[in-house]
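Lab notebook page, bench 4
Experiment: in silico fold of construct C2
Operator: M.H.
Input chain length: 137 residues
Purpose: comparison with the prior construct
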Amino acid sequence: MKLGLNTHTSLIAVFVVVLGCGAGPKPAELMKFEEMRKDEYSETVKERFPALFKEADGYYLNAVDAHDDSEPEDTRHWTRMATITWRSAVALSQKKDAEDSIKAAQNRLKAGEEDIEKAKARRKTAQALAELKNMKF
């Protein structure tokens, strides 16, 4: 069977269109999520909140699949779900950091107050000794 020039051109055009219909570049929102996950704090979040980390990761994989399938709405949806979940985990982790910092500050305050009380006791003892030295028997 001999194909004409128009048939070859049409086949090539269809082939180029099929190959050219790839997912394209990743959306900025998806790339931003990937950058958030590369943060050095990421390991801390993963250790403290593994369930949220895993949930965000699942949403991210759904976003990547949707992007690969050229589904921009689904990509956006899953990326936002991943981002919300990730930011929630980060916020909870930062809350724990703040609570730990407050607890450490309270411990330092308590230790300082104890030191002040000890100093007051030493001062009182020193004053009593000074008074004894000044007494004439």
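Observations: Residues 72-134 form the longest helix (63 residues). Helices lie at 5-20, 28-37, 42-48, 50-68, 72-134.
Next step: discuss at group meeting.
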